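Lab channel / #folding
Pinned by the channel admin:
"Please post every new chain as: sequence first, then the structure tokens as a reply. Keep commentary short and put observations after the output so the thread stays searchable."

First post following the new format, from NK:
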Amino acid sequence: DLNVMTRRNRMAHTVERLPLSGEMRIEQNVGTTLILPVGGGMKVFADSVSSLGPLDTLVLDRNSPKPRLQPEGQGLLYVIRLHAVAAND
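Reply from TO:
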């Protein structure tokens, strides 16, 4: 299980759970996107090439280059999207 907690009326989030299989691209159309592989790692192709091990987290904002992700092994990928909630006046 993975639990994400955000402060009510300040932030909201979504969590997507995907199998690590084949090349993928993740849309980051919100404030911050966290990419967390579990059970296997992945190569990250953006401005440069880097690797994420199991439980390493890639943090992207809406201005980050859209990375290409190549799984290394089997497991799950959690995509967590965080965004601010409009102020309550």
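NK: The chain has one domain: 11-84.
TO: also worth noting, The domain at 11-84 is CATH 2.60.120.10 (Jelly Rolls).
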